[in-house]
Design goal:
- This protein is of the alpha+beta class and 173 residues long.
- It has a single domain, classed as M1 Pyruvate Kinase, Domain 3, CATH 2.40.33.
- Helix content is 20%, strand content 24%.
- The chain is built from four helices and nine strands; from the N terminus they run βββαβββααβββα.
- It has a six-stranded mixed sheet with strand order 4-3-7-6-5-9. Strands 2-1-8 form a three-stranded antiparallel sheet, with no helix packed on it.
- The longest helix has 10 residues.
- It is globular.
- It starts with 17 loop residues before the first strand and ends with a helix.
């Protein structure tokens, strides 16, 4: 980053089979900077696969990738890719029920310079803020396992603070 090496765990890779989800996150997953990632309220980071076409297009426009160069799941730093995951419909406290575990929406993800570096252009964080496609940090309510293709059922929480409103408010601060 800016000519220097930095520790990061943003580049995630899809895995096959089921993965154990414990109170602190997914087995085998790492976070390089625990001051802003990880911990009980940020155990899992979920991102919507429906936003990937946008990122593929803007990366091609920025000439850091080819037009037909697909981004694999995990490229935005998420350790859980969900299709769809709509930030407009998520509220802090909502529960996501998967077949073998339950996760709770805790807060939006805020992009940093490492996000710009992994996306390959300096405006990536700004574009995430403008689009509002931030994804969601999740707390683990009921540990278990997750696997590719798992169905996700949303159980509304108290509906006091929307993920999108919280993201936009903190982004302005």
């Amino acid at each position: 980053m800016n000519g220097r090496r930095v520790m990061t765990a943003i580049g995630k890779q899809p895995v096959g089979g089921r993965v154990v989800v414990g109170r602190m996150g997914l087995e085998g997953d790492e976070q390089a900077d625990l001051s802003v990632h990880g911990g009980p309220s940020k155990a899992v980071y979920a991102y919507g696969l429906q936003h990937y076409a946008f990122w593929q297009t803007v990366r091609a426009q920025a000439q850091v990738s080819l037009w037909d160069e697909a981004l694999p799941p995990g490229s935005l730093g998420e350790n859980l890719s969900i299709d769809p995951l709509d930030e407009n419909e998520l509220w802090v406290g909502d529960h996501l029920h998967l077949p073998d575990c339950v996760l709770a929406v805790s807060e939006p993800r805020f992009p940093c310079g490492k996000f710009n570096a992994v996306m390959g252009f300096a405006q990536a964080s700004k574009m995430m803020v403008q689009s509002g496609w931030c994804g969601s940090y999740l707390a683990v309510i009921a540990p278990g396992t997750v696997g590719a293709g798992d169905a996700v059922r949303l159980e509304p929480g108290p509906r006091e603070v929307s993920l999108r409103e919280l993201f936009k408010a903190r982004a302005r601060a």
